[in-house]
Model the fold of this input.
Amino acid sequence: MNKNIQKKGVSPVITSVVLVAVVIGMITLIFFWLSSAMVEGVIKLDKNIDIVCQQDMKLDAEYDFTTGDLTLLNTGNAPIFDIKLKVYSQGNYKTVRMSGIVGSDWGQGLTTGKSLTYNIASNLGYSLDKVEKIQLIPMLVGKNNAKEKKVVDCKEEYSKTISKV
Amino acid sequence: MKKRGINLKNKKGLSIIVSYVLLIGISIGLSIIVYTWMKTYIPKESLECSDGVSLSISKITYEAANKRLNITFRNNGRFSVDGFYIRGSNKSSELSQIADLNLAKDMIILNDPQIGTIYGDLIRFSLLENSFNPMNYTTRSFNLSNYGTMKKIEIIPARYQVVNDKKKLLQCSNSKIQEILTLNA
Done:
């Protein structure tokens, strides 16, 4: 009987080791699972890029629905790397990027104070008269924790929408 | 049995200390991770010029013969200004519409201090930082013969300012000047 008790005395150490190992294993698994779903923190101008989109990015835009001329102006103090255009027609939309439309003339993007007028009629994916609305989503460049450059879309609440009157 | 009981108590005492150390260690570790992640979300000073930045146009002439635009600026604000962005529109004189033509490259160099003051879309008043002081006047001229008849211009002042302990060149969109142009004989 006494011998049995002594044998049981070893098991708390083993269970503790197993418990710690299982917990560490589970934490590792959960971390890798969640890290893919978590939004990576991207920094620009020493703050989170979402705050830059809200505070410092200011985009003015006009679109002529008869000619297809799009005029852009950066009136803020954050350079806009690219602009995603969501072109709406009859309940559907297509997405195009300004850098793809303008090509090499886009250069470093819409830097502070820069303005640009470009005819985008042939790049909309819809005939000119079918376009009902264009939503412009600014894209900024920041750096992640590993100091790698990352392009981030500003949230839709900071986008600019131009609708046909 | 008594001796054995004392030994067990001692062992439990040690495990409690270890658990406290682990608990505090994990708490501190988690706090550091959460702080590092959250601190980027704390709103910092936004990149905006001070309220007292203001430029005004004291005299403007748009010559019909050679489409030359002469602007005399006055710094009527409380802060010195570094330069300005100037854009025009030859389509519409409506102030609500964007003036999309960048006119910086059309500036005529009138004297030596103006050489080298055009930086892309920005025109600086001199090569020195924030050189245009309050109550001062200065004139800049532009050759607009390539644009037909210019209908309006927009001018946005810019100045170097320390924001979050870093010096930055800011465009002062809140101090924008708009002017509808009429040709002078």
